[in-house]
Amino acid sequence: MNKIVENKKLSENVVKMVFEAPVIAQKRKAGQFIVLKIDEKGERIPLTIVDSDAQKGTLTIIYQIVGKTTAKLSQMKAGDSLQDVQGPLGNPTEIENFGRVVCVGGGVGVGVVYPLIVALKKAGNEVISIIGSRTKDLLILEKEIGENSDRLIVTTDDGSYGVHGFVSAVLQEMIDKGEKIDHVFAIGPVPMMRVICDVTKPHGIKTVVSLNSIMVDATGMCGACRVSVGGKTKFTCVDGPEFDGHEVDFKLLSDRLKTYCESEREAYEKHRCGCDGN
To answer: For the domain with range 2-89, which CATH number is right: 3.30.230.10, 3.40.50.970, 2.40.30.10, 3.40.50.300?
Structure first.
């Protein structure tokens, strides 16, 4: 059992949770994830590790309330316990001194890109961070990312804060101005990552993305998380979660992510109205 230390909302549907997982906290590296299960009958969901404290033996995750399981997770309190936490899983981010790195995060993906920013800065990179959300109220981790970046640019779709527009437009403007960019990391909604890759590909700028494909066992056995990268089938859980964005088949990824959307919505609505019995 893994006791919850903190579980609080960062924005309307985004929640930060800190819980005890001492072994994982000792071993995890930037880019890796865990799979957790709330209770004996609960589904297993993958979530990226945002931070850890090896001394306290805790992990920090940030998740979005999108279905029944994440809704139940958001209702848990400090002192409650998770049934099971498996990890660290996936391959850690390949961190080195690339030079000038641009890290792009959108929506809840801002939480996922944060540990990469910290690790890249520690490795001696000049880190420029571009983070965005639909509105100011949905923006997360601005302070923390700003403290670990050489430059931070914030965008909002509606113009309520920072630059009015998309993160991809800011990156395009940097390229058009001739700014030197050695490496790009982009994490967020699939359409956002696809557009970022479309922006960088003509200029030959290495771009790494983190994929959130449907996952079940997280060991490479079930094949649910399969994606197409460079025309070859890869499994996000054991081959990723990070891949060369210029080789990812984003259309296939997007289509597969829609497979259970209707079932997820139905389960969420039943849970909200108490029709599912728990």
So the answer is: 2.40.30.10
